Amino acid sequence: MLLDALIDLIPELNKAFLETIYMVAISLFVAVLAGLPLGILLFVTDCGLFLENTVVKSVLGFIVNMIRSIPFVILLVGLLPLTKLITGTTIGPTAASVSLSVAAVPFFARIVETSLREIEKGVIEAAVAVGATPWMIIKDVLLPEARPGIVHGITITTISLVGYSAMAGIVGGGGIGDLAIRFGYYRYDNTVMITTIVILICLVQIIQFVGDRIARLVDKR
């Protein structure tokens, strides 16, 4: 009986799994594309660094902290008008990717900033002393030195997005979370609920394993 139920569920599970991967991939791409330069800017404009700028640091820090302080469920609902404007709809994985991206950018930016702070100040001071330009310092010193930390940050962000994508099912965002809510919660189907939990656990374990391996490979220190 249980086996038959799982077999019948396979098409829905495949669709939900692909929707989850789709949402996470889009939002992770946006997070890295926007969060990496934002994290670098948060670091290099800090007090005592080569692009020190209190105003920029304060404004960016406030915006990042403000977005991060909003629970994702509230952010998801609050961004529905923006989602409608960008995608033309408020349901489905593409629509959910808007809120996921907004949540992921400041999250990843803070991780990048933290990774850069772990670099020894002497390395940066030496680069400044030999006359390196800010772009050269960022490209040739900061990013190579912080590479393992940034890879770990991408891993953590990806795992967080998997969890956030499950919450997107509350507003019909699709994915595994939507499947769990529609079948597991509303229909009291424990088979679906347990299956989706197992899938999410396996997915997170795979992401963590791959992320750790890549971080070790790029760590040349």
TrEMBL record:
Annotated ABC transmembrane type-1 domain residues: 17-211
Membrane-spanning intervals of the chain: 20-43, 55-79, 85-109, 150-171, 192-211
GO cellular component: plasma membrane
Membrane topology: Multi-pass membrane protein
Main localization of the protein described in the UniProt heading: membrane
Keyword entries, A-Z: Cell membrane, Membrane, Transmembrane, Transmembrane helix, Transport
Annotated compartments: Cell membrane
Example GO biological process: D-methionine transmembrane transport
Highest taxon of source: Bacteria
InterPro entries (UniProt xref): AA_ABC_Transporter_Permease, MetI-like, MetI-like_sf
PANTHER family per the UniProt record, alphabetical: ABC TRANSPORTER PERMEASE, D-METHIONINE TRANSPORT SYSTEM PERMEASE PROTEIN METI-RELATED
Protein family: Belongs to the binding-protein-dependent transport system permease family. CysTW subfamily.
NCBIfam families referenced in this protein's UniProt entry, alphabetically: PRK10782.1
Entry protein name: Methionine ABC transporter permease protein
Native species: Parageobacillus caldoxylosilyticus NBRC 107762
Gene: metP
